[in-house]
Amino acid sequence: MAEVLKKQIIKFLKHPDYTPLKLTKLAKALGVGSEDYADFKIAFDELRRAGRVVVGERNLVSLPPLSGRVIGTFRANPKGFGFVTPLEPTSHDDLFIPPDETAAAMTGDIVAAKVVKKGKRAGQMRYKGKVVEILERAQNKFVGTLSKQPEGWIVQPDGTGFTEPISVDDVTAKNARVKDKVVVEILSYPTEKYLARGVIIEVLGRAGQYESEINSIIHQYHLPSEFDDACLEQAREAGAQFNPEQSATRDDITQKAIITIDPPDAKDFDDAISLEKNADDNWVLGVHIADVSNFVPPDTALDAEAKTRGNSVYLPGKTIPMLPEILSNGVCSLQPNQKRFVKSVYLTYDPDGNVLSRRFANSIMYSAQRLTYQQADKALKGRTKTIKPEVVELLKNMETLSRAIERRRTKNGMIHLDLPEKELIMDKAGRVVDARPADDSYPHTIIEMFMVEANEAVASLLDRHNVPFMRRIHPEPDTLSMKNLSNLVKALGFSMPRTPDRTAIQNLLAAVKDTDCSFAINLAVLRSFEKAQYAPLHIGHYALASAHYCHFTSPIRRYADLLVHRLLDRYLQNKPIPKHQEQDLTEVGKHITFTEQRAEDAERELNTVLILQMLGKKIGDELDCVVTGLTNFGVFVQSRKLGIEGLIQMADLGPDSWKYNSRTQSILGRHSGVSIRLGQAIKVRILSVNIPARQLNLAPVEPLHSAGGQTGKSKPAKRPKKVRTRKRSKGKTKQHRN
Question: What is the pTM of this model?
Answer without folding.
Answer: 0.86
